[in-house]
């Protein structure tokens, strides 16, 4: 058994290759902290529940598919209430901030943090930060009570507002310190969690008894380690409406083509799942799977074939797909970024629609009718559905349990169906992407019957790589990921 630690993570090694990537705790840097009995112990609703409290040694494996001789592998700390807490209810001053793009479920998470703190831990001082990170130092804070947040889960967006950019570590931590805040709940995507890690480091440098806890939010599902992000199911469901409309339009015209653009800046999860859910989609294009238009095995050839076979077709395209083709065509276009430094994309939906129209304009015997639907912001702005509401509730409750128990520098996340605390650096070190040599993409290809657009060179590269086949299925194909990152840069 050995332990290595730094500010961000404590790695505990056990027998048979067991590794616990543990999260920091207040007691790592503040000695002799008082502890208190968890108020849930005397709460009639919970005290009768057998084993309601999580055992200190409970951990959750990152990989559940193992072989006879596999080492036990990486584990994360299991989330949930602990017998002892590191805050008395009256001492807690918590704040919540939402950053980055919108996502269904943000309001549910806010509501559930406020409710969990109050109903489970008797905490009444909870504040909202207005408009993302910059709100810490440029706006007044908002008081949140169970009553004021009671109905917010029925609305899309975030009642706190959100923003990109404006992360000023010193000003943010000064504000936290000046206002006596000791629990900071940060809801946001990969960029937000990077910002949370920076805040946590600064808090630790100043030796403050302040918890920094993240809740991963990303409609794109681009955060690694976790099973999926909240709002994703809602997005897939909402996308069905656009796909249905595209299908109805396409079916009603001779050689009708419906094109639907969905979100997914660097990864095509929404497009892939929306396609699998719909069954009306004939072609799904995602950033991870480069495609080409002309020639054998190209997109035009497939569109023509599909129209001849079926008389109509539906194309779903993720916004980040084909960006390298657009860049080639507009080599002189200015490379723009948003306030957080994210690359601003060109409209691939419009582009592909025009390319298809131009192609068929040269084929007078095959006139087409193409309708382009861009529902991207409509999908992001809806309230979360039932299953996402449950997911948001569990995430928020787990996060509050962890903070009260003194854990800090963590993101609350679902791993293999279990709530866990994940160190920030595991969440921020890379982005989750669709692995096109994985089973899920193969399932999509067999469902749509579209070409894979893989060139012989790509296939050879995968065949020749040193990893055994089973690792490809676990989604760890470094050769293809490297290729994808290079394409997307
Ligand atoms: N490396 C970083 N260090 C500190 N702050 C960061 C970093 N990257 C992003 N941020 C801050 O995090 C906030 C949100 O980042 P961003 O706009 O990239 O959205 P996100 O959290 O990734 O969500 P999404 O991409 O899903 O919309 C912004 O205020 C940004 O300034
Ligand atoms: O226009 P905005 O709000 O900056 O956000 C657009 C981006 O945000 C995301 O929804 C991620 O939050 C991406 O899919 C999209 O590219
Ligand atoms: Mg992001």
UniProtKB/TrEMBL annotation:
ATP binds at residues 101, 164-165, 189-192. It holds the Pfam family PFK. GO terms for biological process: fructose 6-phosphate metabolic process. Coiled coil: none annotated. Mg(2+) binds at residue 190. Residues 94-401 form the Phosphofructokinase domain. Homotetramer. This is ATP-dependent 6-phosphofructokinase. It comes from Anisodus tanguticus. The gene is PFK.
């Amino acid at each position: 058994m050995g332990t290595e630690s730094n500010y961000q993570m404590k790695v505990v090694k056990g027998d048979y290759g067991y590794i616990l990537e543990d999260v920091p705790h207040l007691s790592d840097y503040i000695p002799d902290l008082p502890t208190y009995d968890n108020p849930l112990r005397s709460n009639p609703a919970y005290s009768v529940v057998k084993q309601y409290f999580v055992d200190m040694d409970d951990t959750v494996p990152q990989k559940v598919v193992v072989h006879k001789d596999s080492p036990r592998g990486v584990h994360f700390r299991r989330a949930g209430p602990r017998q002892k807490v590191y805050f008395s209810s009256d001492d807690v001053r918590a704040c919540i901030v939402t950053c980055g793009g919108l996502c269904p479920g943000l309001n549910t998470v806010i509501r559930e943090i406020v409710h969990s703190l109050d109903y489970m831990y008797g905490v009444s001082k909870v504040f909202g930060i207005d408009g993302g990170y910059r709100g810490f130092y440029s706006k007044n804070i908002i008081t949140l009570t169970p009553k004021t947040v009671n109905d917010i889960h029925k609305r899309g967006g975030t009642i706190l507002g959100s923003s990109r950019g404006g992360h000023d570590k010193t000003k943010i931590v000064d504000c936290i310190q000046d206002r006596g805040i000791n629990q900071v709940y940060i809801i946001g995507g990969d960029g937000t969690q990077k910002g949370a890690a920076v805040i946590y480091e600064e808090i630790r440098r100043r030796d403050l008894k302040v918890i920094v806890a993240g809740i991963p939010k990303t409609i794109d599902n681009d955060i690694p380690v976790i099973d999926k992000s909240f709002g994703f199911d809602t997005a897939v469901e909402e996308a069905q409406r656009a796909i249905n409309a595209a299908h109805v339009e396409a079916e009603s015209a001779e050689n009708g083509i419906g094109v639907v653009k969905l979100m997914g800046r660097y990864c095509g999860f929404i497009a892939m799942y929306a396609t699998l859910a719909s069954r009306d989609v004939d072609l799904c294009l995602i950033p991870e799977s480069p495609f080409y238009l002309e020639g054998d095995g190209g997109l035009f050839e497939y569109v023509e074939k599909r129209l001849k076979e079926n008389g109509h077709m539906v194309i779903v395209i993720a916004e980040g797909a084909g960006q390298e083709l657009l860049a080639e065509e507009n080599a002189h276009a200015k490379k723009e970024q948003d306030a957080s430094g994210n690359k601003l994309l060109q409209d691939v939906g419009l582009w592909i629609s025009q390319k298809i129209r131009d192609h068929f304009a040269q084929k007078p015997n095959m006139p087409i009718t193409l309708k382009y639907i861009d529902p991207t912001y409509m999908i992001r702005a809806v309230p979360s559905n039932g299953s996402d509401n449950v997911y948001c509730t569990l995430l928020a409750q787990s996060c509050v349990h962890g903070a009260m128990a003194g854990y800090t520098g963590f993101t609350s996340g679902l791993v293999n169906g279990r709530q866990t605390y994940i160190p920030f650096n595991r969440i921020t070190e890379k982005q989750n992407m669709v692995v096109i040599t994985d089973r899920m993409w193969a399932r999509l290809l067999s469902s749509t019957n579209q070409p894979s657009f893989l060139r012989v060179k790509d296939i050879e590269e995968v065949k020749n790589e040193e990893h055994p086949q089973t690792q490809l299925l676990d989604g760890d194909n470094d050769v293809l990921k490297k290729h994808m990152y290079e394409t997307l840069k």
